[in-house]
Design goal:
This protein is α+β, with helices and mostly antiparallel strands and 292 residues long. It is built from eight helices and eleven strands. The longest helix is centred in the C-terminal third of the chain and has 23 residues, at 269-291.
Length: 292
């Protein structure tokens, strides 16, 4: 639905058999372009620290990031979508894995004995709210997302990711999963199902709320670059979340990309140029603050 807004631009896509990888290649290219402009145009600036993190897409990119060695008071990640995006609210996130052990006996003599692990897995999924899926939610609404499943009679597995912006509701979602585990084991026998919940990242808004100048300066940088600022919540996560909780408040900026994580991913050269210019304007804003 946004494609008409890109009319006249240089559209960059993959050949359709794989992802483009603009998330996060675009952010890297834009940061490097910003540094190149600083050097070539001899633009004055304060102390700058730059780093590229691996494994951002699985929520562990900043796990081993040394904030003290990085040596900055504040930061920004370039990991968003449309140029001009400014994000400081993200999902609370965990993954939830169900392992189901069935009782596999000959079907001809299985009355009151056989427990089909695959059918139990289907029962577990049916106990979740049917409307709480990514397809059916938007804005600040959270979800359960079944990302992978496998099974046969004797053993089955369900792998979910769970997301919610609100911390209290996020906890309720986890309690719902634990309650399902309890009910299934009461019905089919102790040890039928084992639930493992692994925390991934938290909503950084509680950290950024104490330093909203980061958002105001980002909005000003967008305006200086001729880009409309768009402050909105992320329906996902970013390394800025982990970094914020590690002591480096770090909101997220748009890169100009769209349709991430799939074969329809695309970006425009003009969008990338605009995102790099926003980053450059941010550096200028903070340079003026250092001088002051």
């Amino acid at each position: 639905k946004h494609l008409p807004d890109l009319k006249g631009r240089t559209l960059i896509t993959s050949d359709g058999t794989t992802i483009l990888g603009a998330d996060d290649k675009a952010g890297i290219a834009e940061i490097i372009t910003m540094i190149q402009c600083l050097k070539e145009e001899n633009i004055s600036h304060g102390p700058l620290s730059v780093a590229f993190t691996p494994d951002e897409e699985i929520g562990t990119g900043a796990s081993h990031f040394n904030v003290e060695e990085f040596g900055a008071d504040y930061g920004y990640t370039l990991d968003g979508d449309t140029e001009g995006e400014i994000q400081f609210e993200n999902f609370n996130a965990c993954k939830a894995d169900f392992e189901i052990e069935g009782v596999n006996v000959h079907p001809g003599s299985s009355k009151d004995t056989l427990v089909n692990a695959s059918l139990v897995a289907m029962e577990i999924n049916s106990m979740l709210p049917s409307g709480d899926t990514p397809r059916d939610t938007e804005g600040y609404e959270g979800f359960y997302h079944l990302v992978n499943m496998s099974g046969e009679v004797g053993h089955a597995e369900l792998h979910y990711i769970v997301r919610d912006h609100d911390a209290a509701t996020f906890e309720v979602r986890q309690q719902t999963l634990r309650h399902i585990e309890k009910l299934i084991n009461e019905k089919w026998g102790k040890g039928t199902v084992k639930l493992t919940i692994t925390q991934q990242y938290r909503n950084m808004s509680e950290i950024i709320a104490e330093c909203m100048h980061l958002i105001e300066n980002a909005k000003k940088a967008c305006e200086n670059a001729g880009v409309t600022p768009l402050v909105e919540a992320i329906r996902g996560g970013t390394d800025g979340s982990q970094l914020s909780f590690k002591g480096l408040p770090c909101p997220n900026l748009g890169t100009g990309g769209h349709g991430y994580h799939g074969p329809y991913e695309h970006i425009t050269a003009e969008g990338m140029d605009a995102a790099a210019k926003v980053a450059l304007e941010l550096v200028k804003i903070y340079a003026d603050k250092v001088k002051a």
